[in-house]
Amino acid sequence: MNRHARISLALLVTTGAGLPLVSGCQSAPRQTAEVAAPPPATPIEQSANREEVIALLERAGESADPLLRANAIEALQEAPARATPLIRRGLFDTNQGVRFVSAMSVGQLKLRELEPQVQGLIYDSEPVVRAAAKYALSRLGEPVDLSPLASLLKSQDPRIRSQAAFILGELGQSSAVPMLREAARDDLPRAPTAEVRILRLQIAEALTKLGDPQAIETIRAALFPSRPEDLEAAALAVQIIGEVNDRRSVSQLIFLTAQDGESKLPAEVRLAAAASLARLGQPNGAFIADEYLASQVPAIRAQVAYVYGQVGSPANLGKLATLMSDDSGLVQVAAGAAALRILERTAGDAGRSSASVPAQDSIR
User: Fold this and answer.
1) Cβ contacts of 327 within 8 Å, gap of 6 or more
2) Residue of 155, 148, 150, 107 lying closest to 124 (CA atoms)
């Protein structure tokens, strides 16, 4: 994701501190103009809009901020041919998070032309980058020794364990289930409690992807925070529900978005629920994103953009165009990613529709 622009990616490309939930303080909303839904774009207008969005993401891919570079690479996965030059450059980036995302992108997009560059990352100084390179090569069908991932699961750093668990889940090899279960039982007495909670959830996500029927219960149990310090884990659990396609949790996610008054949950949790509901076939959460469109917090506005992208409605492109001009580069890239996602899917739907209509000559 936006697969790695979750807590795990933020931990890689920033100084190592977790991302706190910030919406508990009620800051004054930003002043934004009311944005009307745009009229349907013609194919030529859609193409121009697409190029404008891609140009924004390509500029972000050359930013001095590694978080923007990493997010731009992920966003451009919607247009693989345009993503490849950024990914190639990212494999040699000075920041480990950007190298990690670039290597993972090679595997996810199966960019065989970048195999020689990925081979070089097998010897990277950072263990998580080496692990991402092994993932990419495995996805490209190359013989790879995946046993070093087991040693990463024994790291004393829960963030490294989290990344190893994520990669094992993405690889889809059920042979990893025993080592993941062992890692879930292992204690980390010196690690921050919040990071351990995140680790437990990411191990449960990996196990769920590998077919463990019990692991989903760990994720579901985290949906209902009982203390403020549980909110970060709850937001991640909500996002994982969408990742693993847990349709049995739809009613719980709806409940999380519907609470009001003193029980109303922070923006991060409600927005994550709206995005996951969209992924689970309930794309009706744009109104929740609208509530936070004028938030003072850039991370919240970026999450708003992500929700619009998951909802997938072209009616939200006008709002995304506004967010693409935001003061925050993080928000601009999130809005560009969401707009590109909508434009690519709209173009694909139009192509399928036209293909299903018989040509006039054949009717005659």
Assistant:
1) 298
2) 148
Q: Residue 206 is encoded by which pair of tokens?
A: 């990996």
Query: What is the secondary structure of 270-291 as a DSSP string?
Result: HHHHHHHHHHTT---THHHHHH
The structure tokens 């992920």 sit at 74
Instruction: Assign 262 a pLDDT band (cuts: 50, 70, 90).
Output: confident
Instruction: For residue 11, give Cα distances in angstroms to 16, 17, 96, 294, 364.
Output: 5, 6, 11, 26, 62
pTM of the predicted model, to two decimals? 0.86
pLDDT in tens, 150-206: 999 999 999 999 999 999 999 999 999 999 999 999 888 888 989 999 999 999 999
> What SS3 class is residue 215?
helix
Long-range CB contacts for residues 179-186, cutoff 8 Å, separation at least 24: 179/150, 179/153, 180/153, 180/206, 180/207, 180/210, 181/207, 181/212, 182/153, 183/153, 183/154, 186/154
State the pLDDT at residue 34: 56
Q: What are the tens digits of pLDDT across the range 105-164?
A: 999 999 999 999 999 999 999 999 999 999 999 999 999 888 889 999 999 999 999 999
**Residue 113, pLDDT score:** 97
Six token digits for residue 36:
């009307």
Nearest to 249 by CA among 220, 208, 281: 220
What backbone phi and psi angles, to 5 degrees, belong to 5? Answer: -80, 35
CA torsion angle 342 345 346 352 (round to 10): 180
Distance in angstroms (rounded) separating the CA atoms of residues 263 and 259: 6
Q: What is the radius of gyration, based on Cα positions, of the chain?
A: 21
Long-range contacts of 44-48 (CB under 8 A, 24+ apart): 46/343, 46/346, 46/347
Sequence letter at residue 47: S
